[in-house]
Amino acid sequence: MEHLFFDHSGKKLKIQEIVFEMAAFMKEDERRRYRITVGTDSQRLEDNTAEFATAIVIHRIGNGARYFWKRHEIGKFFTLRDRIIQEALYSIDIAKEILTALKKADTPLFSFEVHVDVGEKGETKAVIQEVTGMVTANNFQVRIKPNSYAASNVADRHV
Q1: pLDDT exceeding 70 applies to what percent of the chain?
Q2: Domain ranges (residues) in the chain
Q3: What are the φ/ψ torsions at residue 60 (nearest 5 degrees)?
Q4: Average pLDDT for 12-19
Q5: What is the distance between the alpha carbons of residues 53 and 65, in angstroms, rounded to a whole number?
Q6: What's the CA gap between 12 and 107, in Å, rounded?
């Protein structure tokens, strides 16, 4: 399945194009440190379907960031747990695609994280271990609230 994301101007981009944009952003200042993050958030709709938004963020630490996002709607979700797991699965899938493409690109060093929209406070605390375990089992660093800005802030503004 080909994923199309939007940039800040509304232009649609494929994963390869996003990687090209990220590599160019990093090469603008190779002395800086960079962190690439992927996160997904969702919202349950009245008919129990859910709308998901996934964000890819490249953060030039201490000096700005760029992000790309995609929204999609799928089947019925009757529990918060199922929706949170689907969010993590979307993020893992996109993270794998991004990293595969980045390995072929000439980029400065960067760190890479998957951000999940769960935290110690609220209903999602019951699935923290399950969801973070899924992410780490796929060899990604994982962040939860309040440090999961790709999911909790960036993707959240697009659902």
Answers
A1: 99
A2: 4-158
A3: -85, 100
A4: 97
A5: 18
A6: 22
